[in-house]
Amino acid sequence: MKTFKFQSFVLVLIAFVLGFSEFLIVGILDDLSHQFHVSVATVGYLVTAFAIVYAISTPFITILIGRFNLFWDLMVAMAVFTVGNILSFLAPNFLMLAVSRVVTAMVAGVSISLGLTFAGYVAPMPKRGWRLSWVFSGFSIASVVGVPLGTWISTQFGWRISFLTVIVISLLTMIMILMSLPKDFRQKKSTISGQLALLGNHRIQLGMLLPMFNLATIYVFYTYLRPIITKQLHFSVSMLTILLSVFGIANIIGNRASGRLSEGAGLKGMPFVYLAQFILMMLMPFVFNFSWPGALLLTLVIFTMPLINSPIQLFFLQIAERDYPQSIVLASSLNSIFSNFGIALGSATGGVIVSNLSLDGVGPGGAVYAVIALGLVLWLNHLTAKGLSSHSANL
After folding, report:
1. Domains and CATH numbers, the chain
2. Which of 31, 54, 157, 251 has the CA that lies 20 to 30 A from 257?
3. Which of 267, 11, 282 minimizes the C-alpha distance to 137?
């Protein structure tokens, strides 16, 4: 039991440090803008670039390393991740910072995919949904502790020290991985084409789009969370850290609810979530005229953000384990890959809206993606209810 708990802690820590590094930019947006004399919207595109590189590189690297020992794959990926953050810490200009984020993004997706694969491997079957939801909660904990801490460190000591904090946690995480995770874990050997066979499944193809449009909905506004809080809702910088922590707690609660959802209604419960997101996003331009109601609305939307995680992750893994056992790592990576496509799409959309309209437009912009997500999950549930497989479904 102690080993199980320690392994769970390590897997959550992997997700935490990856989330801390990825989301940190949101909290230090203004500081980087001032340091490098570029606009806030330009710095915001670091989020977009990170997500695009993350999403594009992850499946290629995942497929290439899938034939090797997964423990050492994870250690190498975490080492490169640490080097990327060291480059961010040392970056003398905005271009070098952007390059360092590319290096970090290239292995971040692989690292979390391997972490999720280990979570499915070492957890007893009844606890898989529970453990997967906790691993995803690591990203939420990064929002609660990491992003506010990174923001506070940046305002007090400079943004470079925020990256130094990520580096220290990364090194500690690697030590704990060495101490706890099984070192002889491999998936069933297969050719590259054999692993890619998973992507020919029609339900997998449709399911991949769900996390994409889920986070596209959120990141239209989430990328600009700091200016929304300080400039739109008129909260002080000191309140910024408190509110980021509140939002992170809402995200953790959402992740725990995601685990419950995966054990109950699963994807059948998601249409209600996307309908709620649509309504809340459409209310943003009106509610943003009032500080505390605006903060409450943001809390509610952020709570809904991770609800898809455990249901869609189990959906991918169950199909892979039954029909494509050679593609377990690739199946584990799909949620994070397409979530980052969604982050890229949402943050880019938000950048266009903020540059050409105003922060008032981010809510309705995100609502469009919520409608698409609603349509996708209804379609997927319809196919699943009819028992259509990759060989019989006709999209």
Report:
1. 2-385 (1.20.1250.20)
2. 54
3. 11
The token pair that represents 41 in the structure block: 């919207």
The letter for the amino acid at 374 is L
SS3 category, 307: coil
CB 301 within 8 A of CB 251: no
pLDDT band at 1 (very low <50, low <70, confident <90, very high): low
Residues 235-247 have pLDDT tens digits of: 887 788 788 878 8
Instruction: Residue 356: count other Cβ atoms within 10 Å of its Cβ.
Output: 9
Q: Give the containing element (helix H, strand E) for 10.
A: helix 2-27
Q: What is the pLDDT of residue 190?
A: 64
- pLDDT at position 319 is 87
Alpha-helical runs (H) found in 186-327: 192-196, 202-222, 225-227, 237-263, 270-287, 291-304, 309-323
Q: Cα separation of 87 and 346, whole Å? A: 26
The rounded distance, in Å, linking the Cα atoms of 32 and 88 is: 12
| Angle in degrees, 0-180, between the axes of helices 309-323 and 128-141, rounded to the nearest 10 | 130
Quote the Cα angle for 264-265-266, to 5°: 95
Instruction: Give the closest residue to 112 by CA, choosing from 54, 52, 186, 172.
Output: 54
Cα dihedral 334, 52, 347, 299 in deg (nearest 10) = 30
Query: According to the model, what pLDDT value does residue 247 have?
Result: 86
Taking residue 392's Cβ as centre, other Cβ atoms within 10 Å add up to 10
- Report the C-alpha dihedral over residues 122, 124, 128, 133, rounded to 10 degrees: -70
Give the chain's count of helices (H) and strands (E).
17, 0
Burial of 182 (0-12, 13-18, 19+ CB in 10 A): exposed
Integer Cα distance of 49 and 55 in angstroms: 10
pLDDT at 323: 83
Letter string b/e over residues 301-329, b meaning 16 or more CB atoms within 10 A of that residue's CB: bbbbbbbbbbbbbbbbbebbeeebebbbb
Q: Which residues contact 159 (CB under 8 A, 6 or more apart)?
A: 28, 31, 32, 35
